[in-house]
């Protein structure tokens, strides 16, 4: 162990770098970073096990930062282990810099997650802890048993509602490979915390089944003692409540203390206060971007220690590999994101069934053929039909059964989504989660972060339209499809559509959509599924067109007077309306368009093959008309979309179909108006 004065010097070095970064950027959050410096210094210099030469080592300990505004603390620490240069620190928050205002996932740089929206980061950590337990149970590789997941949360993260669901799940599962440090500095952006809460946080977490350790978060000896104890705890996750000093070491322009001030939370220290602070911490305000030689020596020695630690771990892994060659090869594929051969053709879908049931059949197959897959549901698995995964042989994950493949998350959609994202951030796991489509609203922050981080999680949303019926408007998604499809229109930083969204037209189309979702390793995928039964598309429909986002249904006329377009349940209604129209001598093309985003990625020639310029087009959507607006590009001016422009009502869905005009007869009438 390093001497305490030396460790304090290292923490001060981190504080100097954090304050200097923010000062140079003229924006940012120095106070929290300065308060948390002691913990992160102890963690990285003495406890965290990682391979400096192999940042993607599967068995590494992982550190998940929840309060992304404390990025200066993380960047400074990662500079001490050689992941960033001092020059890069000086580019905090600048265009093209690897040091953005909030950290963005980059395994090579030692950043395990993008963080920003408070509460999500530590929930990713819970997912990662589940993944480590799952992988050990599935493979027996000892490296996953030795792996520890660390996470760092702030007062704000504790206050976010997601923390309740996260604490419940982690405690219920007894995740003793999870250690969370709570930076309890009692200061937030606008106020001191006692203005908004008087909660006994320790009691809360103990009630959820956590081990709780209360310490001075700026005391090296107490931090060490807490980490040592946490590492020995069995059957419980551990919360270390570290009472830290916001802006530790900061001084005002007049030389008085600037500690414990809200003003240091979200703004540069500024002017003489900045200069006094750097001087007080033992730095040079004119040259603050320096790693002290004695601090550099600490980390040089730690990197050497890690070489020996990692060598021993690798030797254990090699021995396991030699005795488990088949599992070792399988594990390599899992972390590479390689799918096994999935026999999609073996799925026997029930004709004219609900697409949620068709999804269930797909999940039953996946449970049998994809052993590293975990599926979760927010207490709706027997209704969103994700329980098909259980029917395929998966058992429920519990503290006594981490080899199970199904996570019962309880009524906690956002928490569930973040846990599943965390599993995939860990690696080696394919995660999917389900709920009713209307409750995707609860998941939006996680959906966005998954898209930003390019995590190929699978979202399964059933009960896709007003046809939920008797449950009424609270349960009837109308605007949700438009909201989710915006993600198809937004590009990620790799230039791809940030999300693949698919609403299949029948049971066979559902199989194709699941195939695309599983093969999509670049972005999140979403399947939007029906509660009610749907009549199959006409025999002879070539569903392979699903891979191109839109395709022509069988029975369509080669020469046509009008094109019908829709997705999901509405396609069968369009086909029925086309049959009525043909009785009047008109010719009709019917296009099923499960994914506009995927369709718009196709060559213009294909787009215009389906929708020739100047064609008369009628669209039908159970959501907002904007869902299909993109298919009217270049269409005849008489073209129109029939959608739902209001919330739904409580009534049997067939009554709602009549009231809202989602019938073959209304399709016929609206088409006649366009053709007039």
Summarize the structure in words.
The chain is α/β, with parallel strands linked by helices and 676 residues long. It folds into four domains: 302 residues, Thiamin diphosphate (ThDP)-binding fold, Pyr/PP domains (Rossmann fold, 3-Layer(aba) Sandwich); 27 residues; 185 residues, Thiamin diphosphate (ThDP)-binding fold, Pyr/PP domains (Rossmann fold); 132 residues, 3-Layer(aba) Sandwich (Rossmann fold), CATH 3.40.50.920. The chain has 25 helices and 16 strands. The model has no long low-confidence stretch (mean pLDDT 98).
Notable features of this structure?
Rossmann fold; alpha/beta; 4 domains; six-stranded parallel sheet; 676 residues; 43% helix
Task: Summarize, please.
This protein has 676 residues and is an alpha/beta fold. The strands form three sheets. It has a six-stranded parallel β-sheet with strand order 7-6-8-9-11-10, with helices on both faces. The chain has a five-stranded parallel β-sheet with strand order 1-2-3-5-4, sandwiched between helices. Strands 12-14-13-15-16 form a five-stranded mixed β-sheet, with helices on one face.
């Amino acid at each position: 162990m390093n001497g305490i004065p030396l460790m304090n010097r290292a923490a001060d070095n981190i504080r100097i770098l954090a304050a200097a970064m923010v000062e140079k950027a003229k924006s940012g959050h120095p106070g929290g970073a300065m308060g948390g410096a002691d913990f992160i210094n102890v963690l990285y210099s003495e406890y965290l096990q990682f391979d400096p030469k192999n940042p993607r080592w599967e068995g590494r300990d992982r550190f998940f930062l929840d309060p992304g505004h404390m990025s200066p603390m993380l960047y400074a620490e990662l500079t001490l282990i050689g992941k960033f240069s001092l020059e890069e620190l000086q580019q905090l928050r600048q265009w093209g810099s690897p040091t953005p205002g909030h950290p963005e996932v980059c395994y090579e740089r030692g950043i395990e997650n993008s963080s920003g929206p408070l509460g999500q980061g530590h929930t990713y950590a819970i997912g990662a802890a589940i993944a480590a337990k799952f992988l050990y149970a599935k493979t027996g590789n000892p490296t996953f048993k030795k792996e520890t997941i660390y996470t760092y949360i702030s007062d704000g993260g504790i206050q976010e509602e997601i923390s309740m669901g996260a604490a419940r799940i982690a405690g219920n599962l007894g995740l003793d490979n999870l250690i969370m440090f709570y930076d309890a500095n009692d200061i937030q952006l606008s106020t001191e915390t006692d203005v908004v809460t008087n909660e006994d946080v320790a009691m809360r977490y103990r009630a959820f089944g956590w081990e709780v350790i209360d310490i001075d978060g700026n005391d090296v000896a107490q931090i060490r003692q807490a980490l040592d104890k946490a590492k020995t705890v069995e059957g419980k996750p551990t919360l270390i409540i570290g009472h830290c000093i916001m802006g530790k070491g900061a001084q005002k322009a007049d030389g008085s203390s600037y500690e414990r001030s809200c003003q240091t939370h979200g703004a540069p220290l500024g002017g003489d206060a900045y200069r006094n602070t750097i001087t007080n911490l033992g730095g040079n305000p004119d040259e603050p971007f320096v790693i002290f030689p004695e601090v550099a020596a600490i980390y040089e020695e730690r990197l050497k220690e890690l070489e020996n630690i990692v060598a021993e771990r690798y030797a254990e892994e090699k021995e396991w590999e030699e005795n488990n060659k088949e599992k070792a090869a399988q594990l390599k594929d899992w972390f590479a994101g390689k799918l096994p051969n999935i026999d999609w053709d073996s799925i026997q879908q029930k004709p004219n069934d609900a697409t949620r049931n068709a999804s269930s059949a797909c999940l039953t197959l996946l449970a049998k053929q994809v052993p590293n897959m975990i599926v979760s549901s927010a207490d709706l698995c027997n209704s969103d039909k994700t329980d098909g995964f259980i029917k395929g042989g998966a058992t429920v994950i519990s503290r006594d059964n981490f080899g199970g493949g199904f996570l019962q998350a309880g009524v906690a959609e956002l928490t569930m989504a973040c846990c599943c994202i965390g599993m995939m951030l860990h690696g080696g796991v394919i995660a999917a989660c389900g709920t009713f489509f209307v409750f995707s609203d609860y998941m939006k922050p996680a959906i966005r972060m998954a898209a930003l981080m390019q995590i190929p999680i699978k979202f399964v949303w059933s009960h896709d339209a007003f046809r939920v019926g008797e449950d009424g408007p609270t349960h009837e998604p109308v605007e949700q499809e438009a909201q989710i499809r915006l993600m198809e229109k937004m590009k990620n930083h790799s230039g791809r559509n940030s999300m693949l969204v698919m609403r299949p037209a029948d049971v066979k189309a559902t199989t194709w959509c699941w195939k695309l979702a599983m093969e999509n390793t670049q972005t999140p995928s979403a399947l939007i599924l029906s509660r009610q039964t749907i009549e199959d598309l006409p025999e002879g429909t070539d569903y392979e067109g699903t891979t191109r986002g839109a395709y022509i249904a069988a029975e369509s006329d080669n020469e046509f007077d009008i094109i019908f377009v829709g997705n999901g349940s509405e396609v069968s209604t369009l086909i029925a309306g086309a049959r009525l129209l043909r009785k009047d001598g008109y010719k009709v093309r019917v296009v099923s368009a499960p994914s506009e985003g995927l369709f718009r990625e196709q060559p213009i020639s294909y787009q215009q093959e389906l929708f020739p310029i100047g064609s008369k087009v009628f669209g039908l959507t159970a959501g907002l008309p904007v869902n299909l607006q993109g298919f009217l590009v270049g269409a005849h001016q008489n073209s129109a979309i029939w959608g739902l422009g209001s919330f739904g009502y409580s009534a049997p869905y067939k009554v709602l179909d009549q009231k809202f005009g989602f019938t073959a007869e209304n399709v016929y009438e609206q088409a006649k108006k366009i053709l007039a």
